[in-house]
């Protein structure tokens, strides 16, 4: 972690604690500490406990944060897997659109106590699993493993599928299912009322679903990769959810076919931030655009995938349309999230 | 991390507050995670408790920070962390009421050698230095003038590092008080 506003970063703290600094650096660090009661006492605290324990706890913390930030993604992954393993038939046979359904199910397991209503689905799903094809079981188990200790409504997917394919055990489930769905819906409402934060998950989910439906295979790959990245890459991962192209962009590891902004990603991001003409009519947030790069390297066919409001959308489009040119990669669709926020 | 890591605390904070997008706060909190954790270690002693507290503090941040503007995120987080630890300590032992004293140890920030440009000020400072107890004086001089790290100071003065640090703290405090007296 680099230093911010002359602030003492984690890396420096670690190096200091490990005795990896020479005298001059040590002194400089300590002098900063003298002026920083927060860091000063933190170092005291860290010196007072065993380093092995510190390392263990930090790892735990990191894991928890990652899990929190990405639980929606894991869930989306589970949904994707479920869809791909043939359960999609059921989805499409329902009056709801797949997006709506996925939305309902994936929104339930937010990290609030209300979500604990979800475990009621567990006993429903468990007995029916042996009845499903072994492939499905494997897939579903995988999905559940990813989910760790949050038994969630996603288990409803196999159960629901079973309703279609199995007779005796499903009878009971059929009765339970509407309840389950209602619960999920209620949970969702409560959560939304409780915390604006949930609205975020909602937005994300919608966005994710677009990707899932459009090209779920790529999305799945993406998720798999995202699991390997540690929480240090939060920003990049979050960026990456928009599209595979945006992901490789954000990691600055371009391959030959990925369109890239002339001048580099960093410059492009700065351009987006600096050139934004924010007005009070704009809703703050993120506008996600999809476009292709034409022969001259100019973004073309710009479509809004995730909208905020009209003025915000227009500004995002303007920024991209008037912005730096791109490497010529005709025909490859780009998805880009443009942050709209007051300066 | 290349993009967001270059943003200021306040930029990230504002981004979270205005959009509700958790990722901004995650990036921001990551900068301070070790600090929060270390601070909690100091007062709660057990690392396990400290990491629970760190997680709780992050949760608190998530729920509280949408409410308004924060001019200095770090100071704000510091206060939040302090209060959280305080709350835990009080829960553990209700008679634990005078925690504030424990906490102010280095709250009063003053760096004599950096601001002592003007001569008059320097003269006053010299005067005050003379009044310091020997132990504090040698530590203050070694640290601020000779730029020695705690460790080497401790070696040279045959003191424990802890003692060196408290000498510097007390020396600074005494100097500050002395300077203030002279200003009156």
Write the layout of secondary structure elements.
The complex is a heterodimer of chains A (343) and B (184).
Chain A: H1 10-17, H2 23-34, H3 37-47, H4 51-93, H5 98-107, H6 121-128, H7 134-147, H8 156-165, H9 168-194, H10 196-228, H11 234-240, H12 244-250, H13 265-275, E1 285-293, E2 299-306, H14 310-322, E3 333-340
Antiparallel strand pairs in A: 1-2, 1-3
Chain B: H1 9-19, H2 22-44, H3 47-64, H4 73-92, H5 99-104, H6 112-115, H7 119-130, H8 134-145, H9 150-157, H10 161-183
What labels would you give this structure?
heterodimer, A: 3 strands, 7% strand, elongated, disordered N terminus, B: 184 residues, mainly alpha
State the gist of this model.
With 343 residues, chain A is mostly helical.
Low-pLDDT regions of chain B: 98-114
Task: Please give the radius of gyration of chain B in angstroms.
Answer: 20 Å
Terminus-to-terminus distance of chain A: 24 Å
SS element count, helices of chain B: 10
Query: Major sheet of chain A: order of its strands?
Result: 2-1-3
Total strands of chain A: 3
Strand content of chain A: 5-15%
Helix content of chain A: 55-70%
Regions with little confidence, pLDDT below 50 for 5+ residues of chain A = 1-5, 79-83, 85-256
N-to-C SSE string of chain A, H for helix and E for strand: HHHHHHHHHHHHHEEHE
What does this molecule look like?
The complex is a heterodimer of chains A (343) and B (184). Chain A is 62% helix and 7% strand. With 343 residues, chain A is mainly alpha-helical. In chain A, helix 4 crosses helix 10 (196-228), helix 5 crosses helix 10 and helix 6 (121-128) runs antiparallel to helix 9 (168-194). The longest helix of chain A has 43 residues, at 51-93. By secondary structure, chain B is mainly α. Helices cover 74% and strands 0% of the residues of chain B. Chain B is built from 10 helices and no strands. The longest helix of chain B has 23 residues, at 22-44.
